[in-house]
Write a structure and sequence with these properties.
There is one protein chain. The two termini are 15 Å apart. The strands form 2 sheets. The protein has a 5-stranded parallel β-sheet, with helices on both faces. It has a two-stranded antiparallel sheet with strand order 4-5. The chain has 279 residues and is α/β, with parallel strands linked by helices. The protein is built from 10 helices and 7 strands. It is 43% helix and 11% strand.
């Protein structure tokens, strides 16, 4: 797909995030919106997957280590064809297959149950090692939050992956600069993130704008060239990206838009989609 086509899909993914969290009256829109472009690029361009055969053995695996960004993952899965888009408005409802955090038993396309921060990347490293031991060709991708990497288990997993030279593992950090309590560097600074991953024998790729498809494309092209090391992509993003009143606002980490706010958000996204159609 072209970057423009991917950008249009990302707008629809963002609409799904707003629709889901509004319907649930709960959820985490801010960090889902910041990662919407990444979700779109992975599921529509990068990963070897087949919604009609979701369990095919050679499929690439994605682990949402920052499991609270489930509304973004669900929206990407729905638009990719794993389940109907209409299901997004059942987010967090009793009996829905779309719960507040990813559940491998109930949601088509989900590879790991996550939500306890720091643990998903360990699961991803285990999947990558399993592929190596079994001689399988699939790749494993894991998305972490920049607040999440304050967890010690992240660095245990990084030490393990670097030691094992898991070059089939790509860890992505959504560096939107905000977590539930405010600025990440005020709460417990993780910086410099890139040097920390290098210390654990990762090949590091810094992406200045992780909401830009061209920059994501260049980063993942580089990933394919790396041998003998796991890769860490550190991408700077905007929390709440695409919704005017949510951008750069930590308060939107974990609350849903009300009726009026939902209307404004959808209008913002409608205008963004229309602008892309004019390009």
């Amino acid at each position: 797909m072209t970057d423009l086509e991917l950008q249009k899909i990302a707008v629809e993914v963002r609409k799904g995030i707003i629709a889901g969290t509004h319907s649930a009256k709960a959820g985490h829109p801010g960090g889902s919106l910041s990662a919407a472009d990444l979700f779109t690029y992975l599921y529509f361009e990068e990963m070897n997957i087949d919604p009609k055969n979701p369990d095919k053995p050679d499929r690439d695996r994605f682990v949402l280590s920052k499991g609270h960004a489930a509304p973004g993952l669900y929206a990407a899965l729905a638009h990719r064809g794993f389940f109907p888009v209409e299901a997004l408005t059942t987010l967090r409802h009793v009996g829905s297959c779309l719960q507040g955090h990813p559940c491998v038993q109930s949601t088509p396309g989900v590879e790991a149950s996550t939500g306890s921060l720091g643990q998903g990347v360990s699961v991803a490293a285990g999947m990558a090692l399993a592929a190596k031991l079994n001689g399988d060709s699939y790749h494993v991708y894991a998305l972490l939050g920049d607040g999440e990497i304050q967890e010690g288990q992240v660095w245990e997993a990084a030490m393990f992956a670097g030691h094992r030279k898991l070059d089939n593992l790509c860890v992505i950090v959504d560096n939107n600069g905000l977590q539930i309590d405010g600025n990440v560097d005020d709460v417990c600074s993780p910086y410099p993130i890139d040097d920390k991953f290098r210390a654990f024998n990762f090949h590091v790729i810094n992406v200045e704008d992780g909401n830009d498809m061209a920059q994501l494309r260049a980063a993942f092209a580089q990933v394919k060239t790396v041998k003998g090391q796991p890769v860490a992509i550190i991408m700077k993003t905007v929390k709440g990206k695409g919704v005017s009143y949510m951008e750069h606002v930590a308060d939107w980490h974990g609350k849903a838009p009300n009726d009026e706010e939902c209307t404004v958000a959808m209008e913002d996204l409608k205008k963004a989609g229309e602008a892309l159609c004019q390009m």
